[in-house]
Amino acid sequence: MTECKDEHILNSIDYPEDLRKLSPDKLGEVCAELRQYIIDVLSENPGHLGASLGTVELTVALHYVFNTPYDRIVWDVGHQAYGHKILTGRREAFHTLRKFKGISGFPNPQESTYDAFVAGHASNSISAAMGMSVASALKGEKDRHVIAVIGDGAMTGGLAFEGLNNASANPNNLLIILNDNDMAIDHAVGGLSQYLVDITTSQTYNKMRYDVYRGLRKMKLINNDRRGNILRFNNSLKALLTQQHNLFEGFSIRYFGPIDGHDVDYMIKVLNDIKDMEGPKLLHIKTKKGKGFKPAEKSATEWHAPGLFNKETGERIIVHKLNEPQLYQDVFGHTLVELAEQDERIVGITPAMPTGCSMTYMMKAFPKRAFDVGIAEGHSVTFSAGLAKEGMIPFCNVYSSFMQRAYDMVIHDVALQNLHMVICLDRAGLVGEDGATHHGVFDLAYLRPVPNLVISSPLNELDLRNLMYTGYKESDGPFVIRYPRGKGEMADWRNKMHVLPIGKGKKLRDGDDIAILSLGPIGNEVIKAIKEVEGDGISIAHYDMIYLKPMDEELLHEVGKRFSRIITVENGVIRGGFGSAVLEFMADNGYTPQVKRIGVPDEFVEHGSIPELYKLCGMDSKSIAGEIKKMVIGG
């Protein structure tokens, strides 16, 4: 564990109330120590480095000015909030970040009262904070401040604009802080990103306007009812005089900035000036992702979540093993390029995750046929649908947990029209240290009821390539492929691709005592489990179903007729998923076997390593072996 030395100021700060006891001239030192502490701990305990280094001064300023946790800070994209965690009672536990039974990598209200709202996915802060602000007003809590901190690319999300629009239309005193670092995980894209680079607003003008407004209020010449009309008149006058129109002021939201987000003293001054102003307001700050650690400043994408690194030299510690399996995402990326070389209709789309899903290979090989649409999952799906409608063949790659945000688009814009596109769900199943907000465990259950969808999952990298080829070559409608985070099973994965007949599974081995049906890479845990119990004289049949929809009914009839004991295994929620589909088939066709479903239980699973979480959910090979013995031998 890394600890602050006794003489360090940070060591005396257990909670924000300790921070607020310090004189302002000590805050620069606090920022330096906080930044170094994040570097020290994360060099040995991997996490999201760059984003939190960029928000150190903002974090200190917020907790210095506002009375947290009574005042609410709602973080957007929670990996900006490591400094916040350290200052709010979790400094000593910070080394357990993202570890099993340790603290979460994202704000979590169950972990701390200082975490006002959960923040694993982007763009929800403005809507949530506005709800809190309105609730405070309804309860008569006129002294409570609510602050939404949005940044790291989250302003490109549609929900953020819905929140902005509503904030301008309903009475509230919300403060929105736009942390503008020109980055999400990869570089921010789109017109808004360039707009934030170009926008300028005179600080003198802002101060003059506020002084005039405050004076008129004291003279009782204006009131809250007339405030909106006056604000719109001011904005129009300003646009006329400066030949500029401010997007946020167009929403009738008071705009301040941009200001230097690494000047803690000036931020404290500005926050104190504007915090008690009535009505919604936005403070635009400019920060640098990775601030204070040169390697992270130079390469923000690489240092977003760098893993282990040498904090002295800036060298990332990456252990390469000979002949180790490739990451599933890299198999996807390379295979997409191979397919795109065969057919110029193939295009690639990702919502802000080109590095994470390895769309970067397609972008390099075919830059005009690969698209990063920013943090806009719904748009990525409907954009892909538009491409498909005009004869292109889109491969739309979205993390499984993020696809939840585009569910309506999958139904309304894709499935309803039966459009030919391939939806690739990366990070499907339990994902590990990112925890409950990122586990991609719901897709099988939420996609299964949707008509026209083909839903598949490969046992290994070879079948991932084969399914990508099948979705391109054999399907004429929407074709879903889900695959997990991390490495596959084999080093030699470049097979000659072929079609896997839609709706057909494989019998991997025959047996007489019990049948195990698995879907996707979790079947490799089944293979290990079978090896563990082979010495007990149990005869086990194993079926890799490959397709959840349509299911291989011929195989299921074989299983229903031959076996009285069945185990289903899936890396997803067992309620409504693959096991439920098997049970439905058996019931509909008059089979009455004893069925044990193995998968993610009906609860939000915490963070931890994949092996730890598999064991927790009873999905690891030893747990599966135990269930086999229990069903066949008893006990």
UniProtKB/TrEMBL annotation:
Residues binding thiamine diphosphate: 79, 120-122, 153-154, 181, 293, 377
Sorted UniProt keywords: Isoprene biosynthesis, Magnesium, Metal-binding, Thiamine biosynthesis, Thiamine pyrophosphate, Transferase
Pfam family name, one: DXP_synthase_N
Catalytic activity: D-glyceraldehyde 3-phosphate + pyruvate + H(+) = 1-deoxy-D-xylulose 5-phosphate + CO2
Pathway where it operates: Metabolic intermediate biosynthesis; 1-deoxy-D-xylulose 5-phosphate biosynthesis; 1-deoxy-D-xylulose 5-phosphate from D-glyceraldehyde 3-phosphate and pyruvate: step 1/1
Cofactors: Mg(2+); thiamine diphosphate
Cofactor: how and how many bound: Binds 1 Mg(2+) ion per subunit. Binds 1 thiamine pyrophosphate per subunit.
Gene3D superfamilies referenced in this protein's UniProt entry, alphabetically: 3.40.50.920, 3.40.50.970
GO terms, molecular function: 1-deoxy-D-xylulose-5-phosphate synthase activity
Binding site for Mg(2+): 152, 181
Quaternary structure note: Homodimer.
Role of this protein: Catalyzes the acyloin condensation reaction between C atoms 2 and 3 of pyruvate and glyceraldehyde 3-phosphate to yield 1-deoxy-D-xylulose-5-phosphate (DXP).
The family this protein is said to belong to: Belongs to the transketolase family. DXPS subfamily.
Protein name: 1-deoxy-D-xylulose-5-phosphate synthase
Source organism per UniProt: Parabacteroides hominis
